[in-house]
Amino acid sequence: MQSLIGGYQQFFKKYFESDNNLYQELQHKQSPHTLFLACCDSRVDPVLMVNAQPGDLFVVRNVANYVPPCNKEDNNSESLAAIELAVNYLPIKHIIILGHQDCAGVKLLATDKLEKNSPTVWREQQKQLKNNIDKNYTKETASEFEKINVNNACENLLTYCFVKDKIKNKTLSVTGWYFHLDSGKMETYNPEFKTFSFL
Ligand SMILES: [Zn+2]
Questions:
Q1: Which of 30, 133, 160, 169 is the 20 to 30 A CA-CA neighbour of 13?
Q2: DSSP string across 144-169
């Protein structure tokens, strides 16, 4: 706990006791340009990774960076509420789905280790993952599962009219990123060719 308090004190000094007046500008309004949808994993922090400042990014984090597809009968998802707020009420220009190597969430989904009463949303994510890969989950195939999970989230985003319309008008882009924990390298998903390439 002491390290958290010390960290907060450094943050306070940097942004409120120095000449940095960023929070004077931000105190009444935020104008983030990018929505990051990332995994909860403690090693994968979008703000740190793109060297962002307060106010730059709107960040949604959930287990295994999931976006449920549009389902008019059951749109009961916290992540969806955040995506809708970001796209419809904030000046978001880019959405980046950030997946990563050694994702414990993807591993759970791929190896059928979910608890019997796990949330429905997890079951949906699992079903979609398994529909799109016909392999067993191993150390060697893990990244394929993780990348397909990123693709699925990108494609699910496009099932929402409010996202699709903005992409059509060229006021919004949707991209998948995949972070390699071992090398620090980042791959980006090209939806046109359905392939990943290094940034
Ligand atoms: Zn993860």
A1: 30
A2: HHHHHHHHHHHHHHTTSHHHHHHHHT
Domain shared by 4 and 85, yes or no = no
The reply to whether 46 and 70 lie within a common domain is yes
The mean pLDDT value of the chain amounts to 91
* Residues catalogued as catalytic: 39, 41, 43, 100, 103
107 CA to centre of ligand 1 in angstroms: 9
Are 44 and 94 in the same domain?
yes
State in Å: Cα 19 to ligand 1 middle: 37
Quote the CA–CA distance of 38 and 130 in Å, as a whole number.
21
Summarised one tens digit per residue, pLDDT across range 60-103 is 999 999 998 887 666 667 788 899 999 999 999 999 999 999 99
Do 177 and 85 belong to one domain? Answer: yes
| Span from the CA of 104 to the centroid of ligand 1 (angstroms) | 5
Both 25 and 94 in a single domain?
no
Does the pTM surpass 0.90? The reply is yes
Supply angle C-alpha 138, 123, 152, rounded to 5.
Answer: 70
pLDDT tens by residue, 95-114: 999 999 999 999 998 997 77
What separation in Å is there between the alpha carbon of 144 and the centre of ligand 1? 14
Our measurement of the distance from residue 41's CA atom to the centroid of its chain's CA atoms, rounded to an integer in Å, reads: 11
Whether residue 95 sits in one domain with residue 127: yes
